[in-house]
Fold this sequence. Notes:
37% of the residues lie in helices and 15% in strands. By secondary structure, the protein is α+β, with helices and mostly antiparallel strands. It has a five-stranded mixed β-sheet, with helices on one face. Helix 2 (29-47) packs antiparallel against helix 4 (114-126).
Amino acid sequence: MTEGEAHLLVLLRELDDPEWLESPQHYDRVEAAAHFSVLAARLESDFAARCTAERDTQDSSEYGRVVVPGDATVRGTRIVVCVSKFGSLALVCADNPGAFLGTDDAQTEGELDGADLAKVNRALADLGYVVVAEELLESDYDGPSRLPWHVQRPSWWHRFFGTF
Length: 164
């Protein structure tokens, strides 16, 4: 595990409150919506394309997703940005979560351009989001929260982006 991954794992553990599964205790839906709208507008501007946005996901710790269409990317693969209700956590995926073993794998397979990924990561960083690699989120969940019964192998993804 790299130093950056270790730091992110510490952050995930700090955000993990078993009393508040779907959203943190002082979650502000209006603020989350405004922040998410700025992200969607930024990605539309950066990619010069209409991005779709799914907002305020019900019964989930994920707030929503912004999808950069494939025709706006160098490799023709859409980019999906998932945003959690916790700590401005964000996940960046080529095509869809789970389609690749992370953005490194998508780049190796020629499906994700490094400049496109950098553009998304820059927008997220500028707006205060914390990008967590899909590989880390797919690691086994070992926190104190009781995740839904239907989850076979709980992961950090289930904790901060899953449904309840």
